[in-house]
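fwd from M.: "can u put these together and see what the complex looks like"

so here's what she sent:
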Amino acid sequence: MTNFFWPIDGSIIGLYLLATMIAGIMVRKYVGKVEHFLVAGREMNVYLGIASLAATEFGIVTCMYTAQNGYRYGFSGATPGLLQALAMFLVGMTGFCIKPLRDSGVLTIPELFEKKFGPKIRWAAGVVIVLGGLLNMGVFLRTGGEFLVQVTGLNIKYLEITMTALLLMVAIYTILGGMLSVLVTDFLQFVVMSLGLLTVTLLILAKVGLGTIIRAVESHYGAGGFNPFVNPEMGWQFVLFNAFLNLAAVLTWQTTIVRVLSAKDTKTGLRVYNGTAFFFVCRFLIPGIWGMAALATLTAAQIGPNTLHAMPILLRSVVPAGMMGLLVAAMLAADMSTDSSYMITWGGVIYNDIMAPFRKTRWSEKKGLLWNRMIIALIGVFLLFYGLWYPLKGDLWTYLGVTGTIYLSSMSVLLIACSYWKRANSWGAAAAIIFGALIPVSFLVLEQIQATAGLAKKIGPYYSGIATYLIVGLAMVIGSLLKPKPGRLVTEGGSRV
Amino acid sequence: MFSHAFWIVITAAVILWYSTITVYVAIRGIKDIKGMLIRLGKQRDAKKTG
């Protein structure tokens, strides 16, 4: 039974959607160049950047898995949020990698790689970024739809059509206004999303109580519910893997990096990082509290076999009519901002880097804009068929982990080497990209084959993840050292020229 | 217990920080959007005139 009341809650949602569409479409007249479309003409200031980054990095899928973390691991489940906030703050304070990236004036990370490693590495990096990002995003739409079905009591037969309509709305304003529309709608979505998240959290804390939540975590998980190092399912390997993963995400995740590249200058980009850092704790802890509240109040029989549904089941019984409209509007805001940003930022890499070899002569701005718009439309079609109409087989988390690590491990190593190691070269970069893809995929294959499944389980995703980052780093070093230095040719007599 | 106290403080900080930053960013963000659109509008007008 849900408290969703169509006349009141439906009106709130309708009003929010209307305001978003108007705001998104209105700014299209300011788009005259590809730079306006992809990085908002580099005119983004600090607070708009904070709102946009925060809104983008919180989607329904984020809410679902962070709430599940809270349900399964207690407060320890919010550890990745603390690590990401720390990484974001350190990078924002020091400008590590992102300062040279923004100073270079490029539109994308692979464009920077071309300066150091050549056009082939730029193209390969573009392919890895797009594959990792789009496959990752492929599951967002269905997960978001499942949340809405659980919370609003919407008939599941309308899931596909509802999410298709939502994606269509996002695609329309993103295609017309590019990054400018994304920034302006992100701002609106940040405000709606934050109001919803805060209101529902205060409601849950008032109804369930922080004391009850803490006692429930203590009784279910003991000290492991508060300290990841003593949690039998986590341990130091979980913390170290997440430290690597989150640092890599802060340095290279396309939606995050585009905020630095869209900033009006490097200092603004760094301030956006510092200003958003603590949001990543909120991102994990707020839904985590919802998940822990479900642990405290619901029985296993009420939740069923899938712990991912614990939080929406709690919400539909706790949140009253009227506030339910705000919650759903907040979640739609979260999802729309994520979808629009993913479409524009990954579309930007396809245009700027993967299509680079096909632009032998300089294209007109009009032609460039047309191509960018077509790419976003195609990404929308891909998401629709892959993410919504095509049912995903297998485990969601393995899928997200593998697609994420393929991209993050190699791109972060390439960016660090490109920014700070003079000797780094194309051999090292190619080796890093190959190993970055090979290890996570091999782990996935080991997991799927019956004869090796036991071995894969013994290794576990955390050791495998840590090994990926270390081996990719090593591949970059060894590959770079193996390539002869230019200008150090050896003559037949043995003397160097 | 230290770990309990740690998470109680973090939870309080999250609620307080997020409430404050939402209001602050909501106000300052509108100024940022206005400024950004004014600058882009000027660029567009300059391109049209010359």
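replying to her w this: The mean pLDDT of chain A is 91.
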